[in-house]
């Protein structure tokens, strides 16, 4: 039996304490140990971006991190995007603009787009395409994904104006 | 696939890390950003018995300037370089190059020391090091040594580093006219590995002549290369359109790239000429602004 190492993390603002094998990937920890299966495992070698989460605010591929490395960190997964029981404007926009077909890449796309909109409220199409360039969609749905992010940026702005 | 079992160490200091590396030597691998090592482990192309995670060695994360050199701690992440005002002011060539390093997620985690030590022939930093006469500082329990880029990069994924040594710092000579630096890259999609990279650093004197010129190429050989014949041709001359094109042709003549699925050797040579020509033209324009006639 391999040695287990204790870790403490906050995922979507909830603190967790678990013990993990050193070789356990963060994505497997999030899915299997914590039970948050919104984060997808695609290529498992850092190419497809489906497993993107925010690690201390920065988009990172959770298949290229060992869970033991994130001890003491703050993680946000796709489940953490919604607030007060309602979907994030990005999630609404992906639905409205048909920004997904099979949905496999969607959690990673949403996390990359959420990171973009946090720092850039009026992204150009180029900004959006660069922001999601580390996320692969194999249904060839990029056009609608870009439209969805633009829609979400507008919605977020309107919400700001109202508030 | 999943990585095979390993023992995990997370030293807090460089001394601790060096002691662990000396103890385990070739059985161990250093883990920094993990953007190259972890994929290899996931595919079981690498199965180290010990992992020495140096992410907590905060003393290796810095960007400083000493004696005309820009010094970057090995653990400095691509994103830090991208956002560093010191890099933007001292070394725009590096600031441009880093935007081509992988995608956002890769730049959040990956480090300059990791990329340099991995020495992928299509990586960006080695080309920047070649262009700006870069040096690599390596340290072991036995002491420190500074290695010139020409000696450090030995071939694809091969560097002059002993099993008990850690890359601790990257040094780039500050150019006389920082602004006249240009980095261009051709890849299938932005952020993918480069087919060809061209880097140019110029210094144009009051008479409009090239007082200094450095031209580096990446992705066209096992290691980064300098286009010395092209540099020699331009030195002391006014870099007009015709001479820039001639220099670009010379740069491409002296390389022998390989064929692969991404492009033939001939295509790479033609693209090398094109990119060097473009980079020179842009560098001349920027240099001319610094020396208005």
Task: Provide a descriptive summary of the structure in words.
The complex is a heterodimer of chains A (163) and B (293). With 163 residues, chain A is an alpha+beta fold. In chain A, 36% of the residues lie in helices and 17% in strands. Chain A has five helices and five strands. Chain A has a five-stranded mixed beta sheet, sandwiched between helices. The mean pLDDT of chain A is 95. With 293 residues, chain B is α+β, with helices and mostly antiparallel strands. Chain B is built from twelve helices and 14 strands. The longest helix of chain B is centred in the C-terminal third of the chain and has 26 residues, at 265-290. The mean pLDDT of chain B is 95. The A-B interface holds A 2-3, 5, 21-23, 25, 28, 44-47, 49, 52, 55, 58-61, 63-66, 68-69, 112, 115, 130-131, 133-135 and B 1-8, 10, 31, 34-35, 38-39, 42-43, 51, 53, 55, 79, 102-106, 108-109, 189-191.
Cα(first) to Cα(last) distance of chain A is 55 Å
- Main sheet of chain B, how many strands, which sense, barrel? 5 strands, antiparallel
Number of domains of chain A: 2
Strand order of the largest sheet of chain A: 2-1-5-3-4
Count of the separate structural domains of chain B = 3
Low-confidence stretches of chain A: none
Instruction: Name the assembly state.
Output: heterodimer
Main β-sheet, spatial strand arrangement of chain B: 4-5-10-6-7
What is the chain-wise order of helices and strands of chain B?
EHEHEEEHHHHHHEEHEEEEEEEHHH
What does the radius of gyration of chain A come to? 16 Å
- Encode the helix/strand succession of chain A as letters: EEHEEEHHHH
Question: Which pair of chains has the greatest number of interface residues, and how are they split between the two chains?
Answer: A-B, 32 and 30 residues
Q: Helical amount among residues of chain A, as a percent range?
A: 25-40%
- Mean pLDDT of chain B, as a whole number? 95
Please tally the helical runs of chain A, counting DSSP H or I stretches of 4 or more residues: 5
CATH class call of the largest domain in chain A: Alpha Beta
Secondary structure tally: strands of chain A: 5
Under CATH, the homologous superfamily of the largest domain in chain A reads: Beta-grasp domain
Output the structural class of chain A.
alpha+beta
Helical coverage of chain B, percent range: 25-40%
């Amino acid at each position: 039996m391999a040695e287990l190492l204790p870790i403490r993390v906050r995922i979507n603002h909830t603190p967790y304490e678990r013990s993990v094998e050193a070789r356990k990937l963060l994505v497997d920890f999030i899915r299997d140990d914590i039970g948050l299966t919104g984060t997808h495992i695609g290529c498992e070698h850092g190419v497809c971006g489906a497993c993107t989460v925010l690690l201390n605010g920065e988009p990172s591929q959770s298949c290229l991190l060992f869970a033991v490395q994130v001890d003491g960190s703050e993680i946000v997964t796709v489940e953490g995007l919604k607030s007060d029981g309602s979907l994030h404007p990005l999630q609404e926009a992906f639905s409205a603009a048909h920004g997904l077909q099979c949905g496999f890449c969607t959690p990673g796309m949403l996390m990359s787009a959420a990171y973009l909109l946090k720092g850039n409220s009026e992204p150009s199409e180029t900004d959006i395409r660069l922001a999601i360039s580390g996320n692969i969609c194999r249904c060839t749905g990029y056009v609608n994904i870009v439209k969805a992010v633009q829609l979400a940026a507008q919605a977020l702005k309107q919400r700001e104006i109202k508030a | 696939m999943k990585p095979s079992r390993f023992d995990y160490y997370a030293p807090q200091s460089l001394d601790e890390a060096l002691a662990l590396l000396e103890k385990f030597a070739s059985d161990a691998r250093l883990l920094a950003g993990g953007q190259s090592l972890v994929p290899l482990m996931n595919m079981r192309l690498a199965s180290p018995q010990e992992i020495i995670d140096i992410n907590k060695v905060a003393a290796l994360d810095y960007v400083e300037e000493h004696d005309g050199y820009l010094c970057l701690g090995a653990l400095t992440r691509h994103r830090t370089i991208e956002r560093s005002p010191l890099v933007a002011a001292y070394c725009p060539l590096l600031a441009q190059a880093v935007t081509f390093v992988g995608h956002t997620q890769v730049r959040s985690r990956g480090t300059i020391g990791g990329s340099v030590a991995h020495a992928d022939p299509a990586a960006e930093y080695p080309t920047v090091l070649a262009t700006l006469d870069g040096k690599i500082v390596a340290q072991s329990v036995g002491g420190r040594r500074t290695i010139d880029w020409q000696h450090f990069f030995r071939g694809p994924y091969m560097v002059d580093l002993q099993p008990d040594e850690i890359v601790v710092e990257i040094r780039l000579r500050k150019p006389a006219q920082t602004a006249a630096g240009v980095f261009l890259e051709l890849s299938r999609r932005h952020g993918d590995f480069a087919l060809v990279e061209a880097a140019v650093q110029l210094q144009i004197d009051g008479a409009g002549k090239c007082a200094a010129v450095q031209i580096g190429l990446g992705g066209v050989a096992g290691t980064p290369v300098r286009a010395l014949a092209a540099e020699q041709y331009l030195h002391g001359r006014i870099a007009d359109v015709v001479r820039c094109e001639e220099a670009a042709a010379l740069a491409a003549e002296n390389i022998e790239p390989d064929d692969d699925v991404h492009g033939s050797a001939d295509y790479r040579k033609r693209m090398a000429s094109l990119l060097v020509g473009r980079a020179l033209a842009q560098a001349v324009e920027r240099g001319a602004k610094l020396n208005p006639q």
